[in-house]
Amino acid sequence: MNSVGICMPVFNEADTVSSYLLAIDDELRNRVGGGIVPTFFVTEDCSTDDTLVQLEALMSQISIKIVRNKSNRGHGPSTVRSIHEALNDGMEIIIVCDSDGQFSESDIGTIVKRLRAVTPGTAIRARRAARKEEKYRKLGTWAATLITSLLARTWSPDSNCPLRGFHRADLVTIMSRIADDHVVPAIGLTIATQKLAVSTELISVTWRPRMGCGRVGTMWTASSSVKSALRYLRFCLRATYYLFRTI
User: Fold this and answer.
1) Exposure winner among 84, 183, 202, 212, fewest CB in 10 A?
2) 10 in Cβ contact with 44 (< 8 Å)
3) Partners of 40 in the β-ladder
4) Mean pLDDT taken over the chain
5) pLDDT value of position 33
6) Percent of the chain with pLDDT over 90
7) 122 alpha carbon, distance to own chain's centre
C-alpha cells in the first residue's frame, strides 16, 4: 500500500501552504519510507490571496492535484470534494487533514504507518491533546462529542478532529453516507464509521496554533468575540442538521 492520498481544503493559506505540504511530503517519503508516494488532493476554495499561485508552484516539486471551486463553498464541502478526488484516483490509503498546519507532519506520518500495519476494517482518528481555544469553541467541541456519541452509540472523544486516515475499501462505503455539501464532514465521518462497523483506533496528537497570519481561522473571524460566538452558534445549528442526515 504505497499510494497515499492527502486530502485537504485550502483557503487563504498563501503564507504557509507551501512549507506545510513540503514538510508532509518529506515526512512520508523519507522518514516513513517504504516506497510511499504521497499525492496531495487539494480543493482551492476561491482564495483571495496568492494561495493558488503557491499551490501551482508546488507542482514541479511534489505530486499534487488541484481542483478549484467555482465559488466559495466553505471548509466542509471542499473537504468532501478532496476525498472524492482521492478515491477516484485509486489511492489505497487516504488521509484527511486541514491545510493550516495545526497538525505536525510527524503525527500524519504516524497515522500512515499505523494504517499500513492494520487491515481494512480499521480507521485511525487523531485526538488532540492540550488544545487551547476560546471558551465558546470548547463548549462546541464538548457538545459535538456528546451529540456524536449519542448518534454513533459509542463514546467518541474529539469527534470533530479533522485529522484521520482510512483504507480505500472502508472509505468508499463511508462516503456513501456523507453529502457533498456536508458542513462538518469530520463528525459525519466519525458517525458513519461507527454505523458501518469500521473499528476506530485513536491516536493522541499534538495540537498547535494555526501557521501563518490568520491564527484564528477565516471561518470564525469577526469584529468582536460576541459576533464570533453567534457565528459559531449558527454554524453548530446548521451542522446538527447534517449530522442527523448522516444517520
Assistant:
1) 202
2) yes
3) 6, 64
4) 87
5) 80
6) 65
7) 18
Is residue 53 exposed (0-12), middle (13-18) or buried (19+ Cβ within 10 Å)? exposed
Q: Angle at Cα 153 formed by Cα 142 and Cα 239, nearest 5°?
A: 50
Whole-number Å distance between alpha carbons of 65 and 147: 35
DSSP, collapsed to helix, strand or coil, labels residue 100 as coil
Supply 214's cell numbers.
Answer: 490568520
CA distance 210 to 206: 12
Residues 41 and 89 sit within 8 Å (Cβ to Cβ) = yes
What is the mean predicted confidence (pLDDT) over 117-142?
Answer: 80
Distances (CA, A) of 154 to 10, 42, 199, 208, 240: 32, 32, 11, 28, 18
Given a cut of 70, whether residue 188 has pLDDT beyond it is yes
- Which residues does 131 contact at the CB level (< 8 Å), separation at least 6? 141, 207
Half-sphere exposure of 25 (CA within 13 A, CB side): 15
Largest CA distance in the chain: 50
Neighbours of 102 (CB within 10 A): 21
Domain boundaries along the sequence of the chain:
3-246
What is 3-246's CATH superfamily?
Spore Coat Polysaccharide Biosynthesis Protein SpsA; Chain A (3.90.550.10)
The pLDDT, as a whole number, for residue 222 is: 45
